[in-house]
């Protein structure tokens, strides 16, 4: 007997939901508890990133001229494009929760797939940014030796200046912050892939949508962090 | 389907002990039962205590003579580093919450399990992986940076694989701690028995709640710090290493932003155990319940804003020093509130001097000294000369060993009947409590004295005039070890076939875990319990030593 048939048979017998864990009294209790747990975890995530934001603030204060110079290496158009992509993916993520709550299976599949696609677009853009920099010697820390080519492409004001010492410190901060964020995007993609498989098997509906809700909350945090990263790294001169 | 097959397919028999309802190694390693996970944690952290203890004995033996009596100076540096790192990250921080907390918390709220059993198992496995990485540093040539891992020294290119393994180990153990905290807070919020209000929570749970706040919000900062340290060592980021433009003092800020609150991850659950035991063994409701509960939260919150007192001589601004010093002294207020409430609980109580209570009395004496010497170190003027002397070493051992480990032993003896269904031997337990108390004080009081006299910490050698005190300290360490050996023997001996069986409620306690069987059934309670006042001893009656205590209504039946 396949899993689906077994599940339907159990539902027919009006048994409690197969997704109710044994230690919860009701689906509502399970949903509330899971969301509380996730919020706590997200709070932990915020503090995880806060170390990096603090490092950013300290280094920006100590090396303000270097940070001003270095931000010319980042292309704000790429950052803006990714901001639009990620914010759109948050719309589809929130929409997927709505679809699940309404029991709209097609809408759920569409929104989950769209979220996954937009997340991939974000990483592809990021890949082009990273590879362009690394190709031109703009690595992190001690490995930052910008090529003549990329120096020539800087705006006039920056081109006139000598390359500052410890330029790599800015790019260490840049790579670590965007890299850790990128890892979170990758994890999110894995989660959306998992949701898609489960949704295609009809696991979610009005009675049970905890995972869709939880992953969407996580995805909103990933978006929120980017919304801080974009201006701090790309826009502030 | 034959009846035999049907019996196998059926769920575990209701009413069977969690220890025996399934057998085999796999049924333990992949269990989702909070009780089994708690027992596995207990075994693992006890092994870590043993490992850290061996390092400590090597350190103490080496300091038998001023020039070093046992190992080379390099080996000494590795020994004290690994002693500190193993004890802190693998024993004192996870000890009480992960082992005893995991076991007791769902029982005390009257739930079947923690909110997220799978996450709980994941947390255990992350901890195992972290512990393995720490042990691997030994194989990889050890680590001689001190447990604080301060750069630039710790992240220099010449440091081998050891530092990378240790940083990864801290990272994994940290995430294990975060997940435990999430589980505890969600469970306390959402899984309480019907009728159990916030102020019906046993004080151990208020302590674990406060601990959870710190675990969730301080540990990730350590996580990102060790991740940055890892990358810095491999790729020279220039975040912490000055030669690449980094800031080593930033590491200290990050490190202590976690590692000072971590002190409260250690002490708060210990205080929770003390609150339970002192009330039960004084046969008197806890005095000042709400004050004790709220002082746990106060310690957790204030604890986030005191980290700078570790950096009074690191060159931070004098205004920072002033503010950090002031905030540090504030922690004394909730700590004193707890202490006075415990003492008031004992006042005119009918005190029963069993092993857990003896350990708790040791806790009062030692925590009093440990806490008050903390004031000397929190106050700027006295910290500067005492900084990095043995006075500091003695102070934090008074808190981490004298208070936390002794409370852990109190809790272990207190809940041992519930964990195992067996009664430990009372005389062995009492002997262990006395030996541990004497050995502890003999080890660490001399360290206060040499510290004030100016002996610096972390050196493999010392001035000849400190020899007498150091020898006392070494002798004390062996007395302490003997006491711990007695405790271990007394507990393990009770597991023999002939060991005395424990009744459900051997102590006459009123918290919910004592209404479950000893050991509890897999689902914890045969009938889901209702909340009740945790320290209301009216209605409890002792039947006999073997049958323990029963409630009035049960006795009437």
Walk me through this protein's architecture.
The complex is a heterodimer of chains A (237) and B (557). Chain A is mostly helical and 237 residues long. Chain A has one domain (42-235): Cytochrome c oxidase, subunit III, four-helix bundle (Four Helix Bundle (Hemerythrin (Met), subunit A), Up-down Bundle), CATH 1.20.120.80. Chain A is 76% helix and 0% strand. Chain A has helices at 3-12, 27-62, 64-70, 76-102, 105-135, 148-152, 156-159, 167-200, 210-235. Chain B is mostly helical and 557 residues long. In chain B, 65% of the residues lie in helices and 2% in strands. Chain B contains 17 helices and 2 strands. Chain B has a two-stranded antiparallel ribbon. The radius of gyration of chain B is 24 Å and the shape is globular. The chains are: A mainly alpha (237), B mainly alpha (557).
- Major β-sheet of chain B, in short? 2 strands, antiparallel
The proportion of residues in beta strands of chain B is: under 5%
- The tally of structural domains of chain A comes to 1
Helix content, binned percent of chain A: over 70%
CATH class of chain B: Mainly Alpha
Biggest interface, residues from each chain: A-B, 38 and 40 residues
Shape of chain B: globular
Q: Strand order of the main beta sheet of chain B, please?
A: 1-2
Rg of chain B, nearest Å: 24 Å
H and E order of chain A: HHHHHHHHH
Distance between the termini of chain B: 41 Å
Specify the structural class of chain A. mainly alpha
CATH fold name of chain B: Cytochrome C Oxidase, Chain A
Helices of chain A, by number, come to 9
Which percent range describes the beta-strand content of chain A? Answer: under 5%
């Amino acid at each position: 007997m396949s899993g689906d048939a077994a599940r339907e048979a159990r539902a027919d017998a009006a048994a409690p939901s197969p997704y109710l864990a044994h230690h919860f009294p009701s689906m509502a209790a399970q949903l509330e508890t899971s969301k509380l747990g996730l919020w706590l975890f997200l709070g932990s995530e915020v503090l995880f990133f806060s170390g990096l934001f603090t490092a950013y603030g300290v280094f920006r204060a100590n090396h303000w001229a270097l940070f001003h110079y270095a931000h010319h290496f980042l292309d704000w158009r790429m950052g803006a494009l990714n901001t639009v992509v990620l914010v759109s993916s948050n719309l589809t993520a929130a929409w997927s929760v709505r679809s699940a709550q309404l029991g709209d299976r097609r809408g759920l599949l569409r929104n989950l797939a769209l979220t996954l696609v937009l997340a991939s677009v974000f990483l592809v853009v990021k890949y082009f940014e990273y590879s362009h920099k690394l190709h031109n010697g703009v690595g992190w820390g001690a490995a930052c030796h910008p090529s003549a080519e990329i120096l020539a492409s800087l705006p006039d004001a920056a081109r006139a200046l000598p390359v500052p010492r410890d330029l790599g410190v800015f790019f260490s901060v840049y790579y670590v912050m965007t890299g850790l964020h990128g890892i979170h995007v990758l994890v999110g993609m894995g989660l959306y892939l998992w949701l898609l498989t489960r949704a295609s098997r009809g696991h979610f509906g009005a009675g049970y949508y905890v995972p869709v809700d939880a992953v969407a909350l996580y995805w909103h945090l990933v978006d929120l962090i980017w919304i801080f990263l974009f201006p701090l790294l790309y826009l502030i001169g | 389907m034959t009846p035999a097959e049907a019996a196998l397919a059926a769920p575990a028999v209701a009413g069977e002990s969690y220890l025996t309802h399934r057998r085999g190694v796999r049924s333990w390693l992949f269990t989702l039962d909070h009780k089994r996970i708690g027992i596995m944690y207990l075994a693992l952290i006890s092994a870590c205590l043993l490992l850290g203890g061996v390092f400590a004995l090597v350190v103490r033996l080496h300091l038998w003579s001023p020039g070093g009596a046992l190992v080379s100076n390099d080996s000494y540096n590795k020994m004290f580093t690994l002693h500190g790192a193993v004890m802190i990250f693998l024993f004192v921080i996870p000890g009480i919450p992960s082992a005893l907390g995991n076991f007791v918390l769902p029982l005390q709220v009257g739930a079947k399990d923690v909110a997220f059993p799978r996450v709980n198992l994941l947390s255990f496995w992350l901890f195992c992986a972290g512990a393995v990485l720490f042990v691997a540093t030994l194989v990889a040539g050890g680590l001689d940076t001190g447990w604080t891992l301060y750069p630039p020294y710790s992240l220099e290119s010449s440091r081998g694989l050891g530092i990378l393994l240790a940083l990864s180990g801290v990272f994994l153990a940290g995430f294990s701690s975060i997940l435990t905290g999430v589980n505890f807070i969600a469970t306390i919020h959402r899984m309480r028995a019907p009728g159990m209000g916030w102020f019906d929570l046993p004080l151990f749970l208020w302590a674990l709640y406060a601990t959870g706040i710190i675990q969730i919000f301080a540990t990730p900062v350590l996580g990102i710090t060790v991740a940055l340290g890892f990358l810095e060592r491999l790729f020279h980021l220039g975040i912490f290493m000055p030669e690449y433009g980094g800031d080593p003092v930033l590491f200290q800020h990050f490190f202590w932003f976690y590692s000072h609150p971590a002190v409260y991850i250690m002490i708060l659950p210990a205080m929770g155990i003390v609150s339970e035991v002192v009330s039960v063994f004084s046969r008197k409701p806890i005095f000042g319940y709400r004050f004790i509960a709220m002082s746990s939260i106060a310690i957790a919150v204030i604890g986030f804003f005191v980290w700078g007192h570790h950096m009074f001589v690191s060159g931070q601004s004098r205004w920072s020093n002033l503010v950090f010093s002031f905030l540090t002294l504030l922690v004394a207020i909730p700590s004193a509130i707890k202490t006075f409430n415990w003492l008031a609980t004992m006042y005119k109580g009918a005190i029963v001097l069993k092993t857990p209570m003896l350990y708790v009395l040791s806790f009062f004496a030692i925590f009093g000294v440990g806490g008050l010497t903390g004031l000397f170190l929190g106050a700027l003027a006295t910290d500067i000369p005492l900084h990095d002397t043995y006075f500091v070493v003695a102070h934090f051992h008074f808190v981490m060993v004298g208070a936390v480990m002794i409370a852990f032993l109190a809790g272990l003896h207190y809940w041992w009947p519930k964990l195992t269904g067996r009664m430990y031997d009372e005389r062995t337990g009492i002997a262990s409590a006395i030996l541990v108390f004497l050995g502890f004080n003999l080890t660490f009081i001399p360290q206060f004295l040499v510290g004030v006299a100016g002996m610096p910490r972390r050196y493999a050698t010392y001035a000849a005039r400190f020899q007498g005190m150091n020898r006392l300290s070494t002798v004390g360490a062996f007395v302490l070890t003997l006491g711990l050996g007695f405790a271990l023997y007394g507990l393990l001996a009770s597991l023999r076939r002939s060991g005395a069986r424990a009744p459900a409620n051997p102590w006459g306690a009123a918290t919910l875990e004592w209404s479950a069987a000893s050991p509890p059934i897999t689902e914890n309670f045969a009938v889901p319990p209702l909340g009740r006042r945790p320290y209301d001893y009216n209605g409890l009656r002792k039947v006999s030593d073997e049958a323990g205590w029963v409630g009035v209504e049960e006795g009437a039946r």
